[in-house]
Amino acid sequence: MPETLISNTTVEVVPGGAVQGTIRPPGSKSLTNRALLCAAFANGHSRLTGALRSDDTEVMLAALREIGIGVVESGSGSVIDISGIGRDHFSSRDSHFELFIGNSGTTIRFLTAALSALGGDFRLSGVQRMHQRPIGDLVDALESVCDGSVTCESPGGCPPVRIQTRGWTGASVKVAGSVSSQYLSGLMMAAPIAGQAIRIEVIGELVSLPYVEMTAQIIRDFGVPCGWAPEPSLQANAERVILIDGRGGYRPRDYDIEPDASAASYFWAAAAITGGDVTVSGLSADALQGDVRFVDCLEKMGCQVRRAANGITVTGPERLRGIEVNMNSISDTVQTLSVVALFAEGPTVIRGVAHNRFKETDRIGDLACELRKLGAEIEESDDGLTIHPRPLRPAILETYDDHRMAMSLALAGLKTAGVRIKNPACTAKTYPEYFADLEGLLGRAHRWHQA
User: Which residues are designated catalytic?
Assistant: First the structure.
């Protein structure tokens, strides 16, 4: 594997036999960025262990450092010591901060809410694709609770975002839940920074519920009471209500981060596709991350799944079968399951993921385009797609600068020769060592080409 991946490189995973082995992916991006935010605004010192080192976490760390948070990394970045500042200790409200967020959706959504609650003058911008990813529903919610203004500078309610506030004054806020659960997660994590008890009503469908449950647990882990309201909402159009008592603020603590369950899906999929046997260590069925339920989909396709306290093992069958599944709650694994479906008998129908069109790329339309290049017949719908397996053929596949496109599509090469993935460097967003780790698990080298 090249020491440095560059944008004009393509990678070809070499077909071989059944994949066998054990692997532990790096720490969860979702957990790392949530824990970083809670620790940054706690009153005192926190230590995060097992943290992910990637583009998404780097832009979060850079933004926190820029506003004055003390951060020291060790253990090749997997251990992070944070000197948090509570709301009352932020001394730079009269300064203007320009923060570059790259293409990290978690970072811009979480920080937009957090910094509006902290109070001050901030502008958050990113790469071109970030300026096409909607954040308007979150900004509208913040405008209703902030003492000041939060505005989008791009059409369609997209970043850059300008924040000029003196914190929050309201105690109740409503937010739409159909585009991204990160809007709700951002509001939840901002409440203790505002130092207030906040009631949040979610209007309409709430996508990716497990990520909201993850956020609630981390907030509780950092000492803040948080949970769903027990009584039915009095508002007929409010689907859910969550309460956060943020008056005491976050408490510092040591926090260990689970391996990334979304990343684990690629290795479980390798076992499914090849009839192999792969254990991902460090995860259990009780993990905070909802994406561990990806193995439930593989089980329905005919795989054997063994769930233990510190690892989950998938054994692939002789023949996979197509399934129909709603993946709303595990939408980051849609691309992975779609590639597994290429090798199944019968069609696979994926529903409930309309919000995937607003990710790093259109993860329905663009995914369908690339699967067709491989020879599959794809029916695209508003909220998903149907994969009809057909004999596969060599192809050079686009990744759209989307890490999950690169990692998932590469798996087609496990049984099909000549599948080349453009711009493998885009995996640095969440998993810089993905192709090296995949090589290690396979026990054979990939082929690298200069485009």
Answer: 332
